[in-house]
Each structure stands twice: as structure tokens, then as C-alpha cells.
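Worked example 2:
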Amino acid sequence: MAVRIRMKRMGRRHRPFYRICVMDGRNPRDGRVLEELGTYDPMLSDVDARAVLNGERIGYWLSVGAQPSDKVGVLIKKYGAEGTRLQEQETALARLAESRRRPEPPQEEPKAETPEAETEAVAAEIVAEKPAPEPTPEETAPEEKTE
């Protein structure tokens, strides 16, 4: 069996996303895989954050004779276990994780009493202390029954 390490296309039209997979060379591009080794997202703006690979498993498959495709070979050279751009990738992934983190809601501080709030409170107390107006004689007259 000719084993290849190549990309399997996912995503939708005009929004590609690839999984880097080990598969039989005779299978179609999006066919059955033996193992998934990482991802490649070409839509990310930060170039070094695009590829995420499992270097240990890639090393294993290369040791047993799997052949990478051209593009995957370049990605392995840059971001594999002994890649040339691993430091840049780590910082790019950290920036990406930071940008995706939800901002914490602002903490509400206890409001200090302002002079305006004090005057409003005093006014509310004065209104509450006022006696109710006395009813007029028309309101106090008993209702007459009409039969």
C-alpha cells in the first residue's frame, strides 16, 4: 500500500479548511483516512498560525515510509517536530488565542453618594411625610339608594 500524507479539503465554497491526513494513495482526496495529523487554515491572516501539526505522529509515519505531498512537505519542514518556524508559530497561536478570548464584563463599582442623589433622597422623604389631603364634603356624603 502506498501511504501518503496529504490534505483533505473541508469547509465550504470560498472558505477552505484542510485536515492533514495519512491515507492510502489510491483513495480519493476526501476519502477514507488512516489518521489525522493536523490542520491547515489558509483563511487566517497570521501566516504562522495557519498550520497546526502533531509532530510526533508525523515523525512516526515518515519513519515507516509515508510520503508527504509537496505542500504538506513544506508545512512539515516549517512547523513539524524540528521545524524552522516553531517559535513564530507559538507566538502567533498565542496572539490568536488572545484575540478569540471573550472580554470580561466590566466590574460595577459601588456608586458614591453625590450631592444630587442626597437632595433627591431628602425630597422623597419630605413627600412621604406629607399628610394626605382631607376629603371634601361631597366625597364623604353617603350614597343614597334609589329604588
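The first strand starts at residue 3 and ends at 12. The chain has a mean pLDDT of 82.
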